[in-house]
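3.2 Worked example (two chains)
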Amino acid sequence: MNDAPRYITGVMKRTIKKYGNRKLYDAQQSRYISMSELKEIIRKGEDVEVIDTRTGDDITSEVLTKAIVEAGGKDALSADALHSLIRWGTTAFESGLAFLGRSLHKVLPLADRADVQGLMEKVRTLETRVEELQDQLKQQQADSTTNGKQPPLTN
C-alpha cells in the first residue's frame, strides 16, 4: 500500500494504518501512535483516513467512533446531545451542521482569520462526531436486527 498522503475531494488525508494487534501506525511519522495522539492530530485540524492493513478497508468511522466512546469525560457528547441526535435523526443534525459551515464561510471575510479557523475546527470536529455517531447507530440498528433485540447505546 502507498504511504503517501491521500487527496480526497481536495483535502489531504493523513493515512493511519491499523494492524491486527490493534496498534495504529502513522505512515507520515513512521511510528506507532496512541488513540490520544490520533485525537490530537484531528484536533489540530488534520483529516485522517484509517486503513485496516489486513483487508485494505477504510475503517476511519469505526476507529473515530471508538475514540469518542472511549474518551468519556470532556470529549464525550452529553446525554442531552445524544438524545437530541436520536430524536431529530442524523439527517436533520447533519443539515444543521452543514448550514453552520456555510454560514461561517460567508463570515470569513469579515472576521479575524484565527477566530474563524478556530470555529471551522470546531465545526469539523462536530461533523466528525456526527458521522461517527451515525455509523455507531447504524451498526447498533443492524446488530439489533440480527440479534432480535435492541442493544443499549454505549457510553
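3.2.1 Second chain
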Amino acid sequence: MNVCISCTLNPSPLLLFSNPSTTRPNSPKRRGSSVKSQLKTVESNPVTSSSGPVPTHRVTVRDRQRGVVHEFLVPEDQYILHTAESQDITLPFACRHGCCTSCAVRVKSGQIRQPEALGISAELKSKGYALLCVGFPTSDIEVETQDEDEVYWLQFGRYFARGPIERDDYALELAMGDE
C-alpha cells in the first residue's frame, strides 16, 4: 500500500462518498442503474501548504461501464484516481502514468489540470477529454467515463486505413505479466 508522507503528516478533512456496490468485493454488480453514493465523514487535520490550506473540490464520476455514479472530494494537489482509490472507489485505470486511455473521461462541467496526460492529444484535451490518473481538479467537476477503444480510435483512427484494430488479449496478458 502506497502512503503519501505529506498526507500522513497533514491529512485533509474530507467528506468521502462511496458506492456500497463497489466497495464490497463480493457485492453484485449493478448495470444500467445510476446509484448515488453514500456519504461518509472522515475526521482529520486540514492539509496546509506554505501558502495556506489546499482547496478541495467535489468530483462526480458517472461510470458508464458499471452504471454507477461516484461523488467524492479531492484536494486540488492530488490526482483524482489516487484519491478515489484511497476512498475504496473503483474506477477504470491501467498504467497510472497518463500514457494510455483506460481512465479517459469526458468533462461535462468544471476544469481538470492534467500536465502529464501523454495518452491523449492536445486536440482531444481541447474537446473535453481528460485522464483521471494524472488529473488534478481545479474546480468542482462532473465527468463521464469513456470506452477506452473509442478514445483510442478518436485519437489514432485516422492513421489506420482499415478501421479499428482488433484487441489482442494474449499480447495484453503477456504485457500485464511483465509488471
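3.3 Remarks
The CA atoms of residues 153 and 159 lie 9 Å apart.
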